[in-house]
Amino acid sequence: SLSYDVFDTKPNSANPTHGNTLEPSKQLEGEDITLVEPSVKNQEQQPTSAKFEFETCAATCERFTEELADRCANDPKLDVKFFYDTRVKGVSTAQGGQRRIVTHIQTNRGVIDVNDAQVLIAAGAWTPHIADMMDLYAPVYPLKGYAMSISAKEALASNKLLKPSDLPTRIVCDKYMFTSRLGDEIRVTSIGEFNSWSTSPTARVENEFRKEAVRQFPLLEFFIKSAKVKCGHRPYVSDGILLLGRVEEFDNLLVSCGPGSNGWKLAMGSGSIVEMLVSGKTEDEISVELGFDVRSFSPAGRVVESPIFAKLCRARWGVRNEHEIDVFEQKKEIL
User: Strand, coil or helix: what is 168?
Assistant: First the structure.
């Protein structure tokens, strides 16, 4: 991974982009940068200082998730069932002692009886929609990211003037763009905007995204301008800290969400903590076992009961919980 400030003209800069990383790294200056990543030579504005994370590797969350799901579904030792193309339309709760419990989940494909199960909200940027159905406020916001993919083989085959050294060979990032190389795929990404839960590119932002991608890799201009741009949501938590743990207003509800651009990298560790909580371990016991205070991620005081605000949000977002759906259906029958 090579990170740098695009317009850094000061030699020996001690603060290239992503300077807060704990990955093993070393500082590069001048021509040493292009020795590590020759494709940078093609940029009009040459970086003078960069951080080289020599043990960082590229990965793809899409392939990882698909492979993980396949193994979970097909491993005879695991009891995992996935419901695809299933949308949560309502959540039923009941008073269970001092706290509420989730009893049923209404979906577009029927009702799921929770019975004595534990329920985990791990819905990324859609977490607040599901929480709202239970009169909960979750401080998660959909930060829309922009991405495109280019085939290295196709680029080299269609332009005989291009050399393999003209293409990025590793993760290359600066203030504005993040480009990764994994086999044949050259993936260019950038955080774009807050635009509700829309996953369609905004023309102005898309144009700027392509412009910055061309600036980083000018020899790929044709492919950058013709590549399809896809948008997805990064679950941006208001304070930048994971929402991970039990929701204190419920006996059987947990949440795991965010933060933003590194959520999937933390997924395995988050899953381990959730598994420990579900198995009955306390936060204190988990903290001792893992060597850090897991309570620092607790949703307590952040995911809160807020019936009036949740109702306003549901009205604004067009989200209805189970009771509101029933009332709506009854009114339709009367009409």
Answer: coil
Rounded CA separation 302/243 (Å): 8
pLDDT of 96 strictly over 90:
no
In tens, the pLDDT along 303-322 reads 999 999 999 988 888 887 65
Share of the chain above pLDDT 90, in %: 66
Q: Write the single-letter amino acid at 276.
A: M
Digit-coded pLDDT (tens) for 27-61 = 999 899 999 999 999 988 888 899 998 888 888 88
DSSP notation for 3-52: EE-TT---TT-S--TTTT--S--EEEETHHHHHH-GGGGG-SS--SEEEE
∠ CA 305-123-150, nearest 5°, is: 145
In whole angstroms, give the CA distance from residue 146 to residue 210: 10
What integer best gives the mean pLDDT of the chain?
87
* DSSP code string of 285-303: HHHHHHTS-GGGG--TTTS
Instruction: Name which of 176, 169, 128 is nearest 6 in CA terms.
Output: 176
SS3 for 89-138, per residue? EEEEEEEECCEEEEEEEEECCEEEECCCCCEEECCHHHHHHHHHCCCEEC
Quick one: residue 124, left, alpha or beta (phi over 0 = left, psi -120 to 50 = alpha)? left
The answer, yes or no, to whether residue 22 has pLDDT greater than 90, is no
Of the candidates 298, 277, 259, 247, the one whose C-alpha atom is nearest the C-alpha of residue 135 is: 247
Angle, helices 267-278/283-290, rounded to nearest 10 degrees: 140
Residue 156 has, within 13 A of its CA and on its CB side, a CA count of 12
Question: Cis omega before residue 259 (within 30°)?
Answer: yes
CB 254 within 8 A of CB 119: yes
